[in-house]
Predict the 3D structure of the following.
Amino acid sequence: MKMKKKFRIVMLSSLLVTSSFYVLPGRVFEPGIAVATAENRQSKAAFDQKVIARISTEKMYKDAYFLSETIGPRVTGTEEEKYTAKFIKERLLSYGYEVEVQEFGIPDKTIGHLRTANGDEVLVTIPAGSAATADEGLAARLYDAGLGYPTDFNTESAGKIALILRGELTFQQKVENAYAAGAVAVLIYNNIDQASPLNPSIGENAPIPVGGITKLSGEALREEVLLKTETVTLNVKHIGNMTSQNIIAKRSPKKSGKHDILHVSAHYDSVPFAPGASDNASGTAVALEIARVLKSYPIEKELRFAFVGAEEIGLVGSRYYVSQLTADEIGRSIGNFNMDMVGTSWENATAIYMNTVDGKSNLVSQTAAETAARIATPSKLVLYQRGSSDHVSFHDVGIAAVNFIRREPGTANLEPYYHSPQDTIEHVSRERLKEAGNLVGSSVYNLIGK
Ligand code: BES
Ligand code: ZN
């Protein structure tokens, strides 16, 4: 309040100097349209500066580093995801927010690992629908079953783990042929070079355990078959009763009563094997920094941060978050700024996309576009129709929502590290974190600030 008065006085003098209107001193607090517009523009710029001056590039980078390199992959339901949630919770408490941990159940999962006879770990993905092994795992010799045609099997395949190359047949057909030939499990290896192990879709209830592995692993194992040193141990188990969690931080205006609500969100989980530096330690770090900067500025609307888990298994965390809002809270919600993949250093990703579910602009995209023009955001902003992130959950309950994401303009290309073990801090740009922090932080503050 105090701040604002002081600011108006500064404004008055600058208007008297620069405006072509003659402003009567007595009229300045009942300004005409021209004066009001100028004041508005200036106060917005002042709000921007209060944010931009404080958003710390190093703090964001450090947090993105901690999440992606120190913690590493933060797969839904794992200890790493829970540890990340705890880290976020403690940080928000240290900023003085009211923090809530919202726990929810997630679907059962099938997980596993694969070891060679000499104890080397081979990266493996167990697809949904795989059968489990005994607790101690299944130790058996490998059988090179080519592409997995019925003719690729013979009496030697019985009792062995079939090693099958991806291609020509469906994954399900390969599994069926292996099972029919008496194989006790199947390992399918990729025919293209990808760093993450293959995740073959095999339908429901496969009769035997199935794992997907990389091209590199498959070729190495096939060599071992030829060398006849081919014993491997495959371990597959189903786990149930798993949970994930959202960390929610709130700040309300000093004046009690019902206020409009603005939601800022970012998912902190990652896909398996991916450190998720861009997707989405970047958005998490930027949202944490906005929370720090806005922790004590005067506000006239309620500010909520939703750090959501379980995004990568189908927006489960954000769906749960919106499901826990009352109809009254949804009615008071003015928007959602969702940040997902805002920090990639991939040189082609020169634009900031504002993805909306319907491709139309809304309060959030309009506010961001105005902010970008005022603060001269270096990157082009592109309004685009796309789901695939947590803004969908907000949109679906009627809240104006935008997913901020860096993309290569005019193409469907994604950064080459997307959902891979190469999604590391090395491919995160400090400048782009700062650009996102400035843009979203200033937009948020302009919507809720006082
Ligand atoms: N960060 C991505 C979303 C994304 C990627 C949006 C590229 C726009 C362009 C997100 O974490 C993700 O991977 N989403 C899934 C879908 C989701 C419903 C599981 C996807 O896009 O495959
Ligand atoms: Zn993702």
Notes: Residues 1-36 have pLDDT under 50 and may be disordered. The first helix runs from residue 2 to 18. The pocket of zinc ion (ligand 2) is lined by residues 271, 279, 312, 419 (CB under 6 Å).
